[in-house]
Amino acid sequence: xxxxxxxxxxxxxxxxxxxxxxxxxxxxxxxxxxxxxxxxxxxxxxxxxxxxxxxxxxxxxxxxxxxxxxxxxxxxxxxxxxxxxxxxxxxxxxxxxxxxxxxxxxxxxxxxxxxxxxxxxxxxxxxxxxxxxxxxxxxxxxxxxxxxxxxxxxxxxxxxxxxxxxxxxxxxxxxxxxxxxxxxxxxxxxxxxxxxxxxxxxxxxxxxxxxxxxxxxxxxxxxxxxxxxxxxxxxxx
Length: 237
Ligand code: SF4
Ligand code: SF4
Ligand code: FES
Hints:
The protein contains eight helices and seven strands. The chain is α+β, with helices and mostly antiparallel strands. A hairpin with a 2-residue loop joins strand 3 (about 65-70) and strand 4 (about 75). The N and C termini lie far apart (about 70 Å). Bound molecules: iron/sulfur cluster (SF4) (2 copies) and FE2/S2 (inorganic) cluster.
């Protein structure tokens, strides 16, 4: 019996060639049940066309490096099963990003926005002899925040970020900002809120909720953004 075949149509762009971007068709065998999209990309790279460029590292949905647009929806290739995807599977780079080559996008601005929220614990109280303790309830407030792997699937699915990405921080950076705002050990909450209270940095979120649907870790950046807005309101009342 002939092996089942997976058909793909993949965005190709080589800035050194001088040619326009194009979609290229590939066929790969279904290698095993539960085969992931990253397995198909590896097969193409190693067996068919070594010039195909994409990022990946862990292969387990942990490093966040293989975010891409799969049949119009952002996701991680390493945890997306090929079976069940409409064929040919259309694979494009993350939307709204400058493409460096094929599926590799320039992440500099995304990470600059992440750095801008100062993603580290800030505490001006004397350093305790042992660790800074939290109650179970305080620790639970970090659930749904700290698991973010910075894959950019949410931010690059956000229309507000496509239009105002130079000033709107986008859902990933704002979820990370909220992660520190709700941390009971951090004493910079007021300053963090001051820096976010801005018509563009925070308030360009119009609650379209694309970000929540795109997140492969099932996080909810919309709720995190809502919480930041609520914190700003609460301190005024
Ligand atoms: S909820 Fe806000 S951050 Fe999320 S996609 Fe919509 S506008 Fe963007
Ligand atoms: S919130 Fe989800 S989609 Fe956004 S960067 Fe983090 S893990 Fe990726
Ligand atoms: S390769 Fe690391 S998240 Fe997919």
